[in-house]
Amino acid sequence: MKRFFACLLTFCLALTAIPAFAMLTVSISDISVQAGEEIFIWYNLPEDGQAALSLINEAGQTVAVLFDEWQAAGSYEYGWTGTSGRDALPSGSYDLELRQGAGAVRLKLMLDHPTAPQGTVAIPEATDTPAVAEPEPTAAPQPVSTAEPPFNPTPALRSAYSHVHEPGTCYWCTPMDITDEETVWKMLTSPIYTLNEEQMKQVIVREEPSEDSKGIAVVTGTSEGVHVLENRNDGWSKIECYSSSFFDSEVKAWNEFVTGYVKTSLIQKKTPDQKYALLVDKLTQTLYIFHEGHLLSTLAVCTGLYNPKQPYNETRTGEFILVSRTGDLKSDRMTSRYAIRYNSADYIHEVPHVKNADKSLNYKATEYKLGTRASHGCIRVQRLTNPDGINMKWLSEHVYVSSKKGSRLVIWEDFQGRQIPIPSDDTPLYYNPKGGKDYHTSATCPGALSKYHPMTAFTYGELDTGIYASLNRCYNCHPPRRKADIEEINNLHKTQSPGMVSDYHQ
Ligand SMILES: [Zn+2]
Ligand SMILES: [Zn+2]
Questions:
Q1: Which of 61, 116, 154, 414 is 20 to 30 A removed from 469 (C-alpha atoms)?
Q2: Ligand 1 mean position to 241 CA, how many Å?
Q3: How far is the CA of 173 from the CAs of 216, 366, 411, 431, 438, in angstroms?
Q4: Cα 62 to averaged position of ligand 1 atoms, centre (Å)
Q5: How far is the CA of 78 from the centre of ligand 1 (A)?
Q6: What's the CA-to-centroid distance between 170 and ligand 1, angstroms?
Q7: In CATH, which superfamily holds the domain spanning 1-130?
Q8: Rounded to an integer, what distance in angstroms lies between the CA atom of residue 159 and that of residue 312?
Q9: Residue 436: nearest ligand to its CA?
Q10: Which ligand is nearest to the CA of 166?
Q11: Dihedral pair phi/psi, residue 289, rounded to 5°
Q12: CA dist., res. 224 & res. 222, Å (int)
């Protein structure tokens, strides 16, 4: 975290040196705000200090405080959907007021909430507390539990900004909660902002809006997404991203999360494929395959495993577009089939094999590592078919690969505090009592010969008892890990963010 605060401090110092924010101003992307549609409010603060953005009705009453907090001088973008906390405000004409110190600026806007009945809408009292920053109330009283609430950070967890995009509208502002299928799908199909440079080349992100400024990160052209925070009027844009540094990159910032500047002219908005999208979670070492709004299937993966000598082996996190099919990748004696490039020298491909003397493929040295960190940065995917009939070969035949609108691939970081939920005791599992050595998620898993189908059911609660205690996880269906194994992963993440290389190289 030390590095993070150092960056934050440098960044604040850099901001005060920029004279572009001399005026208190507020502007809006659309003065007519439709229910549920996000608009952007852009504002400049000339100095550091308390700043408040409020909504004032025609009677002159403050009906909502969007924020009231200390902010550094600078330009900001605030995404807003016409709500205050969870409540829609009544339709009508309002003044949006930005206040800092003795200064205040206002502009008019129209709220249009056709479905919100006026009588039932709660208009919160204006208070010192920012309305949108309050924790959302839970829908129903929860049973008393000693378990800690799930920690679902967004990919922009390490950002110096409070992100206010609606979850699902952008990768960076969407919590890492795979159980929220609808929100995750919205995010996976939302627009992506990439940099217009060749797909093997990288753009240097500058600490300040100038070519002479220090390079603090690199972004791969064509395929890597960035979070655009601000389009400035001097030809530069402020962005956030994870640095895609490889061993030979001009800037060595291994998987570091940074805020910096790139030329606005490089930024291009793309709409990714709307049929298939992929999500890799470093925490679970699982690939989640989404198809037309639903989680279709999962496969086990290996992401990168770094060491002090090869910090660049950590898989670079972020959001990407699948940009080109490259077929077989060869390194040393190993071959990886069905490779698809998504980030310069990072590919998603089948788990590597060597050839036996009889030309058959041998996966013994690599397959057992699936579900753990093991690669040099690429995402290795299982070749054995799962109970849905899916494997890397199937994926390569179905996902859309195009530098203009390929399928999105999102990679979630396993930040400190994230935890894998332990399956409930009644989760069904299967095994073959006639000598089967594995446990499965499906009675007809292809990991067991079809003559043993359907296999015999038992439960996750029984897994550590009797004959079940010696069963292994099947390589085809990758059933839930044993409780002790999940707890081991969870304990590690109580104190560490294993993918944040910079934390270990201070
Ligand atoms: Zn966002
Ligand atoms: Zn199985």
A1: 414
A2: 11
A3: 22, 35, 14, 41, 39
A4: 27
A5: 10
A6: 5
A7: Macroglobulin (MG2) domain (2.60.40.1930)
A8: 22
A9: 2
A10: 1
A11: -100, 120
A12: 6
Spell out the domain ranges in the chain: 1-130, 155-420+498-506, 428-480
Whole-model pTM: value is: 0.73
Q: How far is CA 483 from CA 28, 63, 144, 242, 421, in A?
A: 51, 50, 22, 32, 10
Distance from residue 443's CA to the centre of ligand 2 (Å): 8
For residue 120, how far is its CA from the centre of ligand 2 (angstroms)?
52
Q: Which ligand is nearest to the CA of 192?
A: 1
Nearest to 179 by CA among 410, 493, 420, 5: 420
* C-alpha 165 to ligand 1 mean position (Å): 5
CATH number of 155-420+498-506: 2.40.440.10
Ligand 1 geometric centre to CA of 231 (Å): 14
- 27 near 106, Cβ under 8 Å? no
The answer to whether 76 and 159 are in contact (CB under 8 A) is no
Q: How far is the CA of 222 from the centre of ligand 2 (A)?
A: 38
Asked if 1-130 and 155-420+498-506 have one fold, the answer is no
pLDDT by position in tens, the chain (length 506) = 434 444 443 343 333 333 445 778 777 766 677 766 666 676 678 887 788 888 888 888 788 877 777 676 776 666 677 777 656 677 878 888 888 887 887 877 778 765 433 333 333 333 333 334 334 444 444 444 556 678 999 999 999 988 778 899 999 999 999 999 999 999 999 999 999 999 999 999 999 999 999 999 999 999 999 999 999 999 999 999 999 999 999 999 999 999 999 999 999 999 999 999 999 999 999 999 999 999 999 999 999 999 999 999 999 999 999 999 999 999 878 999 999 999 999 999 999 999 999 999 999 999 999 999 999 999 999 999 999 999 999 999 999 999 999 999 999 999 999 999 999 999 999 999 999 999 999 999 999 999 999 999 999 999 999 999 999 999 999 999 999 999 999 999 999 999 999 776 44
